[in-house]
Structure formats: structure tokens, C-alpha cells
Amino acid sequence: MVEIKAQPFPFPLRKQEIALVVIDMQRDFAEPGGFGASLGNDVGRIARIVPDVKRLIQGFREAGLKVIHTMECHRPDLSDLPVAKRNRGQPSLRIGDEGPMGRILIAGEPGTAILSELAPIDGEVVIEKPGKGAFYATVLGDVLKERGITQLVFAGVTTEVCVQTTMREANDRGYECLLCEQATESYFPEFKEAAIAMIRAQGAIVGWTADIDDILETISHA
Ligand code: TIU
After folding, report:
1. What is the reported pLDDT for 88?
2. Which atom of ligand 1 lies nearest, measured to the CA of 39?
3. CA separation for the pair 71, 131 (Å, rounded)
């Protein structure tokens, strides 16, 4: 059996059944004037992981493995935006308001796009999601079943919000989940650290975590 070096113990790789899920690497979370900034966050932290996310995506493509992208966004008529989500916090701009990159977190707007360096290529699935978890109100579960995927490697932002929520959804649905530590980020370094620790605690209660080089090395030779 091929294993990826991981914590709290090695991850048993089934190469035919694994996919990379890149969560919400959108301008809205990584650039000034977007949703993340409207919530008062230092978005510069997100831009710093782009080279590692790119390296991870590239490694999966070169190994012939599937890459799935998600985008957090809402319909232009806001019909999939709960009032509670629109009103949450005290943002300078709310979801659907006009910002410097178009309407905040609305499908099709320039600011909602995936960062150009990480753009999906032809054939890669892109899941638009209205919630924090990528399974809620999307076809992700059907897509994975159709393709025989049972193991998921996770990258993207933010670690303790959309990444962790999606890993928990996936875990409950029976997927084996592995988080790439260098390819995820939070606006709060202490929350990234805590999320990583709680995911792999109690014998990988939610999933495994691993270094990017250990993941890339194993998938390239498996
Ligand atoms: N605010 C925050 O940390 N995250 C989000 O709102 N969405 C995602 O994590 N994608």
C-alpha cells in the first residue's frame, strides 16, 4: 500500500479514488476591496499561499489526478442568500453591494473570480456554493460519486471557515480527508493552527494533515 506521510499517522493513498478540492481561492478573499476585506480582514495573508496552491494543483494535474475548484458566491437576485448571512457582522460592504471589483460575492462578477494564477483548466469541475460547506446546496456529492472518488485532499481558504466546514461535511459522508498545511490559510494565524490541530486530533477525527512536499512526492511516484 502506498502511503502519504501525514499526521497523526500515514494516509493510505488510493490513487484511482483521490481528488484535490481547492476551496474558494477567489479575488473576493485575497484582494483589497473584496468580501474578506469588507469584513475587516488582512487579505495579504491569503496571497502568500498562492505559489504553494499552484504547485499542488500542478502536481495533481501532472499525476493525472482530478482537481475540483469551489467558489463561494450568490445569485445576482440574492435568492440563495439567507438574510442572516447578509446581515452578519458589521461589514463595510454587504454581499450583493457594488464594490471596486463589482458586486461583492455575486456569481459572474470580476471580484468573485478564482485568482488568475489558479484558474481552472478545461475539464475541471467548478462548484459554485452559497454556503461555507461545499456539499450544502451543490452537486459536489453527485460529482464525486459519478467519478468514484472516495479520498479528498484539501487546499484553499479559509482554514477554519470554508475548508474546515467542507472537511467536516465530507467526513460525515464517508470521504477520507487530507488537508495540505502549506496550501491553506486563515486571516488569523492562531485559527489556522487550531483548525489543523482539531482536524487531526483524536486519531484523525475529521482527517489527516500533511506537508505539501510529502503529498507531491507520493502522488508523483504512486
Ligand atoms: N470569512 C472567512 O474567513 N471565510 C469565508 O467567509 N468564506 C470562506 O472561508 N471561503
Report:
1. 80
2. 1
3. 10
Quick check: 209 and 196 in contact, CB under 8 A?
A: yes
Three cell numbers written together for 193: 493552527
3-state SS class at 32: coil
Cell numbers 457582522 correspond to: 89
Catalytic residues: 24, 129, 162
Q: What is the pLDDT of residues 165-219, one digit of tens each?
A: 999 999 999 999 999 999 999 999 999 999 999 999 999 999 999 999 999 999 9
Q: What's the CA-to-centroid distance between 204 and ligand 1, angstroms? A: 23
DSSP 85-133: HHHSS--SS-TTSEEBTEETTBTTSGGGSBPGGG---TT-EEEEESSSS
Q: What was the pLDDT predicted at 68?
A: 99
Atom of ligand 1 minimally distant from the CA of 165: 9
Which residue's alpha carbon is at the smallest distance from atom 8 of ligand 1? 162
Measured from CB, residues less than 6 Å from any atom of ligand 1 are 24, 29, 39, 72, 132, 157-158, 161-162, 187
pTM exceeds cut of 0.90: yes
